Structures are given as C-alpha cells and as structure tokens.
From TrEMBL:
Cofactor: heme
Listed InterPro entries: Cyt_P450, Cyt_P450_CS, Cyt_P450_E_grp-I, Cyt_P450_sf, Cytochrome_P450_Monoox
Protein name as it appears in the record: Uncharacterized protein
Xref: Pfam families: p450
Residues annotated as binding heme: C359
Superkingdom, taxonomy of origin: Eukaryota
PROSITE patterns: CYTOCHROME_P450 (PS00086)
Keyword terms of this UniProt record: Heme, Iron, Metal-binding, Monooxygenase, Oxidoreductase
UniProt record similarity statement: Belongs to the cytochrome P450 family.
Any GO molecular function: iron ion binding
Length: 412
C-alpha cells in the first residue's frame, strides 16, 4: 500500500519502537547486531558511553574525525582538461577517515590503491548496490550461484580475515596490564577498545563474531554515507559560486594560515554549516528509511496502519515538501538560520533519521563534513561541468548514475 503523509507530525513512525526494517539484501551484509543499553562497559573502564546509550554526543570514541584530502593527490586533480569524477576519490578519503578515527588504523587508502582490504570493502559496496538493483539477485540462491555472488563471498572472506586480524592484534595488546593501564588513562579510547572492553552485568564480553559484525557495520555505514554527503556538497558549491566564495572567506578568516581545524573551529563556521545542512536537505545521503510498526498507528487525518506493517519513509521527498519548504528546489542556506529554523517541526528535516534507531554517527558525520569542506574550499575552487549533470540514483545511499563531475582549480 502506498500512503502519502503530508503532515510532519505524522512522521511519529520514527518513534515507533518497532524493528528497523532493512532491504533483505542489506541485512546479509550489515548484520543486525547491536551493543544495546543492557551491555554497558566494564565498570572499571573509565568511559560512560555505551554504543546505543545516547551519551555518544560528548563521549564518542570517534568524536574527532581525522579526515583530510591527500594533498598531492588532490593537487594532481587540479586544472585537468576533463572534469573529474568526485565520488570515488571522496569515498577513499572517508574510508581512510573512519579507519583512522574508529580503529586507529592507518590505511593510506587514498594513495595505496593496492590495499587488499580496501579493495574488498570497495567491491562489497559495489556488489551490494548491484544486488539491490538486480531483482533476481534478491533471491539468496540465485545470488549465491551467480558470478557476482562468488565475487561477493570472496570479498567478504578478505574483509573478515582483515578485521579478525586487527581485532586479534588489539586483543593481544590489551592482555598486558601495562597497556590496559594506559588505556584506562586514555581520554578517548577508540571504537575497537570499547567493543573489546564491553561487559554485561554478568561480566560477559562480546563474542568475536559480534565484535566483527559491529566493526563491519561501522565501516560501511561510516564511509559510504559521508562520501555521498561530501560529494553532493561539492556539487552544490560548484553550482552556487556565490555561496562557495562566502564559505571560503569564512573558513580563511577562522583558519588563517593553518591547514587543520581545531575542535573549537567547528562552531565558528556557521555559514558553511548552513550550506552543508541545505545540501543534506536537497541531497540526503540516505534517501529513505523503513520501519516495521510495533503497534498500530493513527495519523492526523484519521487513516491508520496495523502493527506489523513495513513503512518506508522517503526522506528525499519530505525534504522537498512545498508545504514545509518554500521554493523547495532552490538552494538557500538561510533556511537553516536560527530564526528560520525556529518554527519548523523537528521531523521535517531528518537526514540522519530520528527516534530510537536514528544515525549513531551523526555528530561525527557533521564534524567530518565540516572538516572536509573547510579544508577543501580553503585550497580549491570547485567548478561545475554543465555537460555532465548528475543523474540521481537513490540506492541505499543517494548516488549519481553517471558520477558527480566537477573541475578543480587551486584557490588564489
Ligand atoms: C552524512 C553522513 C551520514 C548520514 C546522512 C547518515 C544517515 C543515517 C541514517 C538515515 C540512518 C538510518 C537510521 C534509521 O533507519 O532510522 C543511519 C544509521 C546508522 N548510521 Fe549513519 N549516517 C551518516 C554517517 C554515519 C557515520 C559517519 C557513522 C559511523 C561513524 C554512522 C553510523 C551509523 C550506524 C551504526 C547506523 C545504524 C544505527 C542502528 O541501526 O541503530 N553513520 N545513518
């Protein structure tokens, strides 16, 4: 059944405590295993955060994104006769960032294209999207027997072997008392430290398989989404040079001669932040989410849906609803000024979804977007390529069928 909900208040489905419903093909890749609130870190361990404890805002082990465009590589992309396709370069940059930030793993994948793990992760993303697009592949047996299924399993094995090795090495390291002491002093242990030290009330830790599943989930949810976000922001900046220039001036004023951002800088670039939010409105990296209703729901107009229904919410359309957004197709960052946002319903703008199963990495992601945009716009000007307009492709994440093409030149 297809039902159109026009009232933002009706989007209370987000608050439904029902199961998160995923595309069946997605389920296999990102197993639904969670360190829930009942699994709290060892009391001796000096952190207050649990993965889903919602205190992650301040205490997240990955609160500091370590994203930065590889200087030499991005310099070499400047002043090309042909426009460059951004998505692939940005994906490697965000993968590099999540590996460093969450697992303290120096991947160098922006330049080291030969890294087998990175290639496997890349292959898995591609094959997952292909599986979703190809209807017969929704059947497990057909996919299993197909050449793509074979490639998928091989890539899974490589990725799992690598994750298992990283986990094993860290486990061995944590066995020595000296290292454990040091970890206790660490203000921000990384995500892997937290998973390995997590214990339930009975003192039981996570199984190896659970830890690996969490690591895999973070790896995927944490890089493809931000790659989509950053690529579309650059596209918007290329389309709107006046806003791009305002951002650049703001960034240069804050950074001066510095080539990196301090924690405090993130709150000093409000115009850039508004542009990022406006881009996430027009091009939400996750274009839709789904829920299985745990209980019946009645909407404002009296229509209702029974428990057990799977409801898909189209974030892309919600963000372009003309009843909420004046001239919805127009890129206008001022929509996100404090005055203009004050009266908007909290569920009218949901790039990170809402409710109990919203995006766990949203603060990290917003910071990552700010850092990436600030560092790039400080050094480069992004120009549009009108001959290759992007053809939007809503998959698990919002991509472009023909890539996102822009020209880069060094900013004066
Ligand atoms: C611009 C970047 C991002 C966007 C737009 C985004 C958006 C989303 C959305 C819409 C969901 C689905 C929530 C739902 O179904 O209601 C989600 C889930 C999730 N995100 Fe993000 N995300 C981003 C970046 C990240 C990053 C950087 C991480 C990790 C560091 C991350 C980790 C997760 C995880 C683990 C989930 C699953 C949560 C659960 O099932 O409980 N995300 N994200």
């Amino acid at each position: 059944m297809l039902t159109r909900l026009k009232n933002a208040k009706d989007i209370s489905i987000f608050e439904s405590v029902g199961q998160k419903s995923r595309n069946p093909t997605h389920k296999g890749l990102l197993r639904e295993s969670r360190v829930g609130p009942e699994m709290s870190p060892n009391s001796e361990f000096p952190i207050t955060v649990t993965y889903r404890g919602h205190s992650e805002v301040e205490e997240s082990p990955i609160r500091q994104p370590r994203i930065s465009p590889d200087q030499d590589k991005w310099d070499s992309l400047c002043n090309k006769k042909e426009s460059i396709e951004l998505f692939e370069h940005v994906s490697l940059m965000t993968l590099d960032s999540i590996m460093k930030s969450a697992f303290s793993y120096e991947s160098n994948c922006q330049t080291d294209n030969d890294n087998t793990y990175i290639r496997a992760v890349y292959e898995l993303s591609l094959l997952t999207n292909m599986r979703i697009r190809t209807f017969p592949y929704h059947n497990n047996l057909i996919f299993h027997l197909s050449p793509h299924g074979f490639r998928f399993r091989r890539a899974c094995r490589i990725a799992h072997l690598h994750t298992a090795r990283v986990i094993d090495e860290r486990k061995k390291l944590l066995q020595t008392e000296e290292v454990m002491e040091k970890l206790k002093q660490k203000r921000h242990p990384d995500f892997l430290d937290i998973l390995l030290c997590a214990k339930d009330e009975k003192g039981q830790g996570l199984s190896d398989e659970d830890i690996r599943a969490e690591v895999d989930t973070f790896m995927f949810e944490g890089h493809d989404t931000t790659a989509s976000g950053i690529s579309w922001i650059f596209y918007c900046m290329a389309q709107h040079p006046e806003h791009q220039q305002k951002c650049r001036e703001e960034i240069r004023e804050v950074l001066g001669k510095r080539d990196s951002l301090e924690w405090e800088d993130l709150s000093k670039i409000p115009y850039t932040t508004m542009c990022i939010k406006e881009s996430l409105r027009l091009y939400p990296p996750v274009p839709s989410v789904a829920r299985e209703l745990a209980k019946p729901i009645t909407f404002h107009d009296g229509r209702c849906l029974p428990a057990g229904c799977i409801v898909s919410l189209n974030i892309y359309c919600m963000h372009r609803n003309p009843k909420v957004w004046k001239d919805p197709e127009v890129f206008d960052p001022h929509r996100f000024s404090a005055e203009n946002s004050a009266d908007r319903h909290s569920h009218a703008y949901v790039p990170f979804s809402a409710g109990p199963r919203n995006c766990i990495g949203q603060n990290f992601a917003m910071n990552e977007l700010k850092v990436a945009v600030a560092l790039a716009l400080k050094r480069f000007v992004v120009l549009p390529d009108p001959s290759k307009p992007p053809l939007k492709l809503p998959q698990l994440i919002l991509r472009s069928k023909n890539g996102i093409h822009v020209y880069l030149k060094k900013a004066s």
